[in-house]
Amino acid sequence: MAILPILETPDPRLRVVSKPVETVDDELRALIDDMFETMYDAPGIGLAAIQVGVPKRVLVIDLQEPEEEEGPPVRRPMVFINPEIVDPSADLSVYTEGCLSVPDQYADVERPATITARWLDYDGKPHEERLEGLLATCLQHEMDHLEGVLFIDHLSRLKRDMILKKLAKARKERRAA
Fold first, then answer.
1. What is the pLDDT of residues 117-154, one digit of tens each?
2. Per the annotation, does 154 bind a ligand?
3. Eight-class DSSP state of 167
4. Active-site residue 173, yes or no?
5. Domains present along the chain, CATH in parentheses
6. pTM (2 d.p.)
7. 127 among the known binding-site residues?
8. One of 27, 142, 147, 173 is an active-site residue; which one?
């Protein structure tokens, strides 16, 4: 396994629409394993293949929520290959979202509160499930990446420009250090 470099905005590859996966094989599973290692190292709770420069409809999620109040986060890795949303709710929820491709920047984004999603897992087995809460939000966020969309695209122009200016300033400060 390897930690892969994560693309950051304004890298144009983040705007590429990802292609469907034709075959779930050992090569794809190796990519998925690397994606998990990269996501955990970052650290994050979701990562789309395009964020590591691979334009395939693959994403990984692990909310890493604690099982008990004081316990360490429990890893529950989930793999979504060729995910699709088949029934978004009319009810909306707002979460403060961040993104490994827009580092250290956060903003409130409104999305459907619950969704029914279809996907293939790590072994190519099909699933269809009703999802809600943070998992529903995270899946929608990562699926946006598959369409070349970043969470900042859901914001007003003013908020998006403010985030991009903060990001540019932080990059400039890192280079100067």
1. 999 999 999 999 999 999 999 999 999 999 999 999 99
2. no
3. H
4. no
5. 12-176 (3.90.45.10)
6. 0.93
7. no
8. 142
